[in-house]
Specification:
heterodimer; A: 185 residues; mainly alpha; 70% helix; globular; B: 74 residues; 5 helices; 54% helix
């Protein structure tokens, strides 16, 4: 980190090498679009590396970089209102017609090779269940069980009270269980 | 209520699913079908989550990032 703070090319590359996969994976699962996730990951690294001098070592570097990435994803989802859509349609859809109209069609973009990759990578039952979670729950559950963050680290990363993080993770797992069991029935 | 009689908390169930719950509390599962069912269901989800793969961006990602980063020396 000390070398990176001095702007050494090799140290910056090492940080990219170390975090590109976890960061990209989180963003990809958040926005479910490879190209967009890559843009957001790139934006995150540029922001972090160009602002490295403002990094405060009392915080974990991983918390700092994941916070910026997660904010980028949440901002994007809010802007595009994708968070109101789920694979089953908008949560406020009351009739089957409304649900169909607001449904995310996984196969809609099947024409492009990239969409085929996305369908393959994010088409499993657990990935589809994660996609149905609220973005806040999604971030928490991914940081906890995919990235192995502690509850305290998640609270620091997402700037949420510890109790809220625990509640979100508990609810997220309950919802995931429900979606997965519903599918098995 | 003794340690053995108390139902497991959500966090304890998570610890159990990861094999990290102290034996004194894990013993409760032998006697409590409620907690056992709950813990098994949690374990399944947690296992699915921890086995999720990591994805990689396209090749050349680091170069694309570095092209827009200001590298400086003191």
């Amino acid at each position: 980190m000390a070398w990176a703070k001095q702007g050494h090319d090799a140290a910056f590359r090492e940080l990219v090498r170390r975090y590109e996969r976890p960061l990209f994976s989180l963003l990809y699962r958040m926005v479910r679009d490879r190209a967009l996730a890559e843009d957001l990951a790139q934006e995150t690294f540029i922001k972090v590396l160009n602002g490295i001098k403002s990094y405060r070592p009392e915080f974990k570097f991983s918390s700092w970089i994941f916070k910026i990435a997660n904010n980028a994803a949440i901002d994007h989802l809010r802007r595009k209102s994708i968070d109101t859509l789920s694979l089953d349609g908008a949560p406020n859809a009351e009739t089957s017609e409304q649900m169909r109209a607001t449904q995310l069609q996984v196969g809609d973009r099947a024409e492009s090779p990239l969409a085929e990759v996305e369908n393959r990578e994010l088409g499993t039952a657990i990935e589809r269940a994660i996609a149905r979670l609220r973005p806040e729950y999604r971030s928490c559950i991914l940081l906890r069980h995919v990235e192995g963050f502690s509850y305290e680290e998640i609270a620091a990363t997402l700037e949420l009270p510890l109790g809220t993080v625990k509640t979100y993770i508990h609810r997220a797992r309950n919802e995931l269980r429900g979606y997965l069991e519903e599918r098995r029935e | 209520m003794t340690d053995l009689a108390m139902h497991l908390t959500t966090e304890e169930i998570e610890l159990w699913a990861q094999g990290l719950l102290p034996a004194t509390r894990a013993l409760h599962l032998a006697d409590c079908s409620l907690c056992r069912v709950e813990a098994e269901r949690e374990r399944k989800v947690i296992l699915e989550l921890v086995q999720l793969p990591q994805f990689a961006p396209r090749a050349g990602f680091a170069d694309r990032v570095m092209a827009q980063v200001q590298v400086f020396t003191l």
